[in-house]
Amino acid sequence: MDKPTLNGEMLTLRPIRASDAEAVWEAVTDDEGRRLTGTTRAFTRGEIDTWCATVADLPDRVDLAITLADPTDDEYLGEIVLTDIDEVVRSANLRLAMRPGYRGRGYGTEAIQLVLGLAFDGLGLHRVGLDVLSINTRAQALYENLGFRVEGRRRDAYRDGERWCDGIDMGLLEDEFRAGQLD
Questions:
Q1: Most buried of 13, 118, 146, 156, CB within 10 angstroms?
Q2: CATH code of the domain covering residue 123
Q3: Domain count of the chain?
């Protein structure tokens, strides 16, 4: 599958490339980002370098760097990913991660809207799912505002320091996406 470039008002989403490795490294070593996404695995810099250089070639997924729409500024602000794309079931999972300095600016909202357009209009999917940690109430509110519905809760599925927190499963169906486009 060719990896697309998507253009919005504020953002351009483009395939991740080797030159993004330094910014990706910053994101995967950010303590607060790791906490809010439940990331427990420690990556090496070599793994990140290899990942950025090769992820665009992997099947069944679309990994896109979030950058500003300004063609003179191609800085990696974060990433948005459709994983586990199943063409038979017509479903995928969504993941969003922003670098520390770019959270809370509306970039995630536009990135998700662009990727949902790709998922439902470009890839012909029926369902996009995700999970969000119960401690990440801002992200859960964002997903709900975009039409995702809570589908379940996995109790004590993640660690938050010495405490446990729940994983909240959410999903958006094609007809719900289309109805949201009419609002």
A1: 13
A2: 3.40.630.30
A3: 1
